[in-house]
Specification:
Strand content of chain A: over 45%
Helix content of chain A: under 10%
Number of helices of chain A: 0
Radius of gyration of chain B: 13 Å
Number of helices of chain B: 0
Largest interface: A-B, 22 and 26 residues
Structural class of chain B: mainly beta
Order of helices and strands of chain A: EEEEEEEEEEE
Number of strands of chain B: 9
Structural class of chain A: mainly beta
Order of helices and strands of chain B: EEEEEEEEE
Oligomer: heterodimer
Largest sheet of chain B: 6 strands, mixed
Distance between the termini of chain B: 28 Å
Largest sheet of chain A: 7 strands, mixed
Shape of chain B: globular
Shape of chain A: globular
Number of strands of chain A: 11
Radius of gyration of chain A: 13 Å
Distance between the termini of chain A: 40 Å
Chain lengths: 116, 111
């Protein structure tokens, strides 16, 4: 069974940093591209970042470019999102999503709250 | 303001049919596959349709997808109260990086 489990969310002050993790199981993690998608409270889905299976290709949404860094460790079956210079508008539930046929599996999400 | 335009809400009675539109441009829907996602209240999104009109295993054939030009449509027949959810379209957009883009979402109410 495919499972994606996010962790690392929490309350952080504006300007602070946070590192999210996504633990994958039930599939060959190293064969799939992965994405981070976020959802602000009461709002729609917003794509954040993409990383290819070998980490050779990475994309970011303009809203996070220069502040967030996506990475993965295929040996540990894990995906990461390093978030720096956090702003109030980064407050959201962050999901990791596998890109098989489209975004075919999603984690349960981890809540990031940016507030003083 | 989302790159892909969806109606904010649709509604229909149980047993009826509903369609949800998703309008884009040549840089996204016009040249890429569209997928659709269902998000039940308080849960993570779930893939409903991929490659414009394909259903993943386990998705009933009450759900269908189509694409024409720069627009896509999700259809749901035999509506059930359990179908009440937010529905999102999504696709790659080559004009922005590339970036993945989602529609703003459509809230389906089964009356």
């Amino acid at each position: 069974e495919v499972q994606l489990v996010e962790s690392g969310g929490g309350l952080v002050q504006p300007g602070g940093s946070l590192r999210l993790s996504c633990a994958a199981s039930g599939f060959t993690f190293s064969s799939y591209s992965m994405n981070w998608v976020r959802q602000a409270p009461g709002k729609g889905l917003e794509w954040v970042s993409y990383i290819s299976s070998s980490s050779s290709t990475i994309y970011y949404a303009d809203s996070v470019k220069g502040r967030f860094t996506i990475s993965r460790d295929n040996a540990k079956n894990s995906l990461y999102l390093q978030m720096n210079s956090l702003r109030a508008e980064d407050t959201a539930v962050y999901y990791c999503a596998r890109e098989g046929v489209a975004f075919d599996y999603w984690g349960q999400g981890t809540l990031v709250t940016v507030s003083s | 303001q989302s790159v892909l335009t969806q109606p904010p809400s649709v509604s229909a009675a149980p047993g009826q049919k509903v369609t949800i539109s998703c309008s884009g441009s040549s840089s996204n829907i016009g040249n890429n596959y569209v997928s659709w996602y269902q998000q039940l209240p308080g849960t993570a999104p779930k893939l409903l349709i991929y490659d414009n009109n394909k259903r993943p295993s386990g998705i009933p054939d009450r759900f269908s997808g189509s694409k024409s030009g720069t627009s896509a449509t999700l259809g749901i027949t035999g509506l059930q109260t359990g179908d009440e959810a937010d529905y999102y379209c999504g696709t790659w957009d080559s004009s922005l990086g590339p970036n993945w883009v989602f529609g703003g979402g459509t809230k389906l109410t089964v009356l």
